[in-house]
Amino acid sequence: MKRVLQFLGDIFRFHKLKLLLAFCSFILFLFILFPFNDLGTFVTAQVAEQSQNNVFLKFDELSLSVFPLGLDFTNVEVQTTAFPAVKARELTLAPTILGLLTFNPGLTAKAKGLLKGDVSLSTRGEKKATDGKAAKVLQNIELDASGLDLASALSMVSNLSGLEGKIDLGVSGKIDPQFEEQPSMDLLVEGQKVQLVNFSIDTVMGAFPLPDISLQKLRLKGVLQEGRLNIEEGIIGNDTDDLYAQIKGTLRVTVEAHRGQVSPVLGGYNLSVRIKTKKAFQDRASLFFAFIENMKVSSSSTANPEYMFRVETSDVRMPPNMTPLTSFN
Predict the structure, then answer these.
(1) Among 72, 113, 67, 110, residue whose Cα is nearest residue 89
(2) Domain edges within the chain
């Protein structure tokens, strides 16, 4: 062993320039001579093949990222059969160091210009033992997004329109890539200066349009587990806005995968709602507030009326039941 160490020491002592030249040549090969165009074609083909032609990746340029060690893409467009096309100005993909050390492959991804904001995603595999079956690999995910365009984000997961503004998003939890198990994760959505433009609320009597309004705050905090979203805190607006609402309760949300397409399916819900408004906005939205007049808190003032009620249904396609509440707990 001593001779081996001495031999290695002599190499570094007497061949420093040669080693430096070899290292520089390696870097030169990676950044200048490496055929990234051919690699880009290979990556595009592999993404399509692995997704059974359900996901198509397009980009203008591909290069090597030094820190973190990975690949850089510019002007990226991802087309899927499940969602509208998504574009990003820059995308960096790299393996997770912790995943490599624990032999559980993972990935880190950073995107700029995605839904007009910045997104950071980290995944790491985790084996889960099952009775009499091969171990299942779940993915631990951490997602942070800032400055996302609210209207663009909503268009990807629902038909809801009329909400404009910027939001921040935080998601952490576990996902079964095959969706044989429902995801388990914590959710946090925060927005500021959100605007309702040509927005309407669907009811059993039809859609009730709301006048345009600016809201200083939007916050949704919840836990998704076993196909049920527990809304711990839902806030729309603040005390100084014309409209201030609080929501909490449960909503059934299951994620289904069919022929490569992944989509959320809404079920029943049981929500407690508290609304505070100002007389001027109540007059502008008189049709909607006439609909919930029986839910008005008797002790609230005329200048600042308040409404509290529970709305629930076993199926989102069925008309909900509404009952007044005396307290919001």
Answers:
(1) 113
(2) 15-95, 226-329
